[in-house]
UniProtKB/TrEMBL annotation:
Protein's cellular compartments: Membrane
Lineage: Bacteria, Pseudomonadati, Bacteroidota, Flavobacteriia, Flavobacteriales
Record's keyword annotation contains Transmembrane helix: yes
Organism: Flavobacterium terrae
GO CC, alphabetical: membrane
Transmembrane spans: 12-36, 48-68, 80-97, 103-121, 141-162, 182-200, 240-258, 306-325, 332-351, 357-380, 392-412, 424-444
GO MF annotations, alphabetized: transmembrane transporter activity
Keyword Methyltransferase carried by entry: no
SUPFAM superfamilies linked to this entry: MFS general substrate transporter (SSF103473)
Protein known as: Maltose/moltooligosaccharide transporter
Keywords: Membrane, Transmembrane, Transmembrane helix, Transport
Gene3D superfamilies noted in UniProt: MFS general substrate transporter like domains
Membrane topology recorded in Swiss-Prot or TrEMBL: Multi-pass membrane protein
């Protein structure tokens, strides 16, 4: 069946669920380290506490890709059942994670949250390739990125907004402030509603040959399909994997370390260590509360600044949406420019000391984020078998989660020392990694992949 070109609102509707997915990712990325620190984690412990996130992606995404490739229901479709399951689980985890009373509970909720987000997210990538002809793939992934940018910006500023509405920003030692809990609750609701919107407004194409699909489904097994897909992985996918490795190492470093790095380096307000205070001595509780308030306020400012990378990725995606609607996009050079710009944003953090310049840094980083969420997937979708799109998108996720696992298992802590022992060193590592990702685009040479 020949795929027809879709209009703006049709693509918008099928991508709208990403608003909720990004609410989950932005709240997780912007505030989990803060929750860990509030519960007593030291800065050097944080990357290890984050390891649950990439590990779940490594396991979950290929499985969900395989299952959605081999699912078809005239009532529920192919990808939509997985959207809904992931949304329900993610909303549950988002609501409860800020109520964690200990580090191990918070780490456990992070595990559940990331696994659930991955259940929803992987089929969304495959849905674009399912529904759109090759000539609209760049347009479709860029429009997804526009919605992701909107979600990132709003969600990153939610705790600040709720705080401004009058909710308490102070709490007892080891307790998450009330306004953070409310922000996560709002995020849970938005996640579920936005996924339901896509499910109710989007129809999926049936397999081209339903009988052949049913026959193939009987013959397929997960491991057979997995090993066949690994063996037949196109060279373009491997080259994109190099770019993805450096890109996602950089962003994992940012998500896990931006709060401890920037609260100390820019705002001189590191998280207070409870062990350094003797609460039996008069004045020590007040001193802790004052230091904690400074840290929470600085964390809000870092979260708001991080929200700007969602805003600039949204503006970048909006520009590309208008451009890609009428013309082909040189995916290779757009991606190269964007990654290098983001790398410079991270590197500038080493020489700045004020909020306004921090905002500029995150605006540059947003160009990278906007491109990372669209260009690699557009290039990949032009180089793989459409019947295996879910599995291949799931396997492509290996190049996202493996660098994050390496980062969590000591990569961030050990490599950051190359840039000194200061709090800002991890951000300099992230910048260098993004620049390497940009240069790696020279590996991509296939014309069809570059132009779309």
């Amino acid at each position: 069946m020949e795929k027809r070109k879709l209009g703006f609102w049709e693509i918008w509707n099928m991508s709208f669920g990403f608003l909720g997915i990004q609410f989950g990712f932005a709240l997780q990325g912007g505030f989990m380290s803060r929750i860990f620190q509030t519960l007593g984690a030291e800065s050097h412990d944080i990357p290890g506490l984050w390891i649950a996130a990439p590990l779940t992606g490594l396991i979950v995404q290929p499985i969900i890709g395989y299952l959605s490739d081999n699912t078809w229901s005239t009532r529920f479709g192919r990808r939509k059942p997985y959207f809904l399951i992931g949304a329900i689980l993610s909303s549950f985890a988002l609501f409860f994670v800020p109520y964690s009373s200990t580090l191990w509970i918070a780490a456990g909720f992070l595990w559940i949250l990331d696994a659930s987000i991955n259940i929803s997210m992987e089929p969304f990538r495959a849905l674009v390739a399912d529904k759109l002809p090759d000539s609209q793939r760049s347009y479709g992934f860029v429009l997804q990125t526009l919605i992701i940018g909107i979600g990132t910006w709003i969600a990153s500023n939610l705790p600040w907004l709720v705080n401004k509405m009058g909710f308490e920003d102070t709490a007892a030692p080891g307790v998450i402030p009330e306004y953070v809990k409310i922000a996560f609750g709002i995020g849970a609701l938005v996640f579920l509603i936005s996924i339901l919107y896509t499910i109710l407004t989007t129809k999926e194409y049936p397999p081209k040959d339903l009988e052949a699909f049913k026959s193939q489904k009987k013959e397929n097994t997960f491991f057979k399909d997995l090993f066949q897909s690994l063996r037949l992985m196109p060279s373009t996918m491997k080259k994109l994997g190099v770019i993805q490795f450096f890109s996602w190492f950089a962003f994992f470093t940012m998500w896990s370390m931006a709060t401890p790095a920037l609260t100390e380096h820019i705002f001189n307000a590191p998280a207070p260590n409870k062990e350094a205070f003797n609460f039996a001595i008069a004045g020590q509780q007040e001193a802790f509360d004052a230091a904690n308030k400074l840290f929470q306020t600085a964390s809000d400012k870092v979260g708001s600044a991080m929200g700007l990378y969602g805003l600039s990725s949204m503006a970048f995606a909006l520009f590309l949406t208008f451009y890609a609607a009428k013309r082909s996009v040189n995916r290779k050079y757009v991606h190269m420019f964007s990654l290098v710009a983001g790398g410079l944003g991270f590197l500038l953090m080493g020489v700045i000391k004020d909020q306004s310049m921090l905002n500029v840094c995150f605006l540059l980083i947003g160009l990278s984020w906007g491109s990372i969420l669209s260009m690699p997937y557009a290039m990949l979708s032009s180089s793989v078998d459409e019947n295996k799109m879910g599995m291949m998108m799931g396997l492509f996720n290996m190049f996202i989660v493996i660098p994050q696992i390496i980062a969590a298992l000591g990569g961030v802590n050990s490599l950051s020392r190359l840039f000194g022992e200061t709090a800002i060193a991890p951000m300099l590592l992230a910048g260098s990694s993004l620049v390497l990702a940009g240069i790696s685009n020279f590996l991509i040479t296939e014309e069809r992949v570059i132009k779309g």
